[in-house]
Amino acid sequence: MTSIERTAYPRFKRLITARELHLFFSPSREEVEWAVARTSSDGHQLALLVLLKSYQRMGCFPRWEEVPETVADFVRRAVELPEGLVAGHGADKTAKNHRSLVRQRVGVTYDAGQARKVAEEAIRAEAASKNNPADLINVALEQLVQRGLELPAFSTLDRMAMSIRTEVNSDIFAFVHRRIGEEERANLLRLVTTLGLDRKTLFNQLKQPAKRATWSHLKKLADHRGWLDGLGDTEVWLEGLAAGKIADFAGEAEAADAAVLQDYTETKRITLVACLVHKARMRVRDDLTTMFCKRVATKVKRARDELEEIRRQQQSIVEVLVGNYRTLLRQVDTDGPAQTARAKAGALTRRRWTRWRAWTRRPCPAR
Q1: Which residues have CB under 8 Å from 43's CB, separation 6+?
Q2: Smaller CB count within 10 Å for the chain: N or C?
Q3: 310-340: per-residue pLDDT in tens?
């Protein structure tokens, strides 16, 4: 049975705050007068008010044992009924009458057949793309609320979702089984039956994760991709199936082992293994790309480091050569162009300095 906590089906919280009690469960004066006019005892009045506020809050009628004591006690104190009053519907006829009164009050028509029909159509339409029963139940709840229909019991929706999902999945299993050739079916079945040298089935090879990015692992991964591609063209087998269904079937196969899969029917076993092979083929391509990029990035980083080291060495060599050449010019080429240019620059500087000193020492003209 699907856990109700995983769905959007309305239910009472385990802990209801004082703010929520005042906001959702406080009866108005008109509602109190309405309940008093339609009941003959304080207990029935309290039960009718609790049923009314619960339906207004959740959109369905809870079983009386599901109503928290804090809610019933809050409603009792809000309408000033006696302390210790035990609320209840009494006979089944009274409970049925109370539900009819609440439906008239909130303007809802009870049509269990129509509600089941709407829920079944919604679940069947989504079962081709969704595999989680909780998701299917949520889709049915959404449609029921939009149509303004009273929600069936959660157990009704849960049984309906499981039944329709089983029916739809059986059709999918048979559809995929017909698409796969006999030889390819034998190869897929061999994965869960044939034992290797390590006494393990080949089925475990479909689940192996990628290893560290080395060239040896890259070559092994490429061989693994070739082995997977040799099992068959999964794109053709699974064409038309929703991606969510393929992922769920592959996840179910990956979580199981070969012994568990052998207990399934042949159509289901082959379809689950085919989905897992499809997932493994996509994963191995991603792993190959990632591993190759990591290896190339490592090579590029190493090449950059080596290039930087070569540049530093060449720079050191150039600096040493320039220093040696400068020393050589000073010692050997005394009358060469470099020395002549230096002498001319020094003579020109001295002449300009002499002229400036002479100009600054001239006497000022008399006024």
Answers
A1: 85, 86, 87, 88, 90
A2: C
A3: 988 888 888 888 778 777 766 665 555 655 6
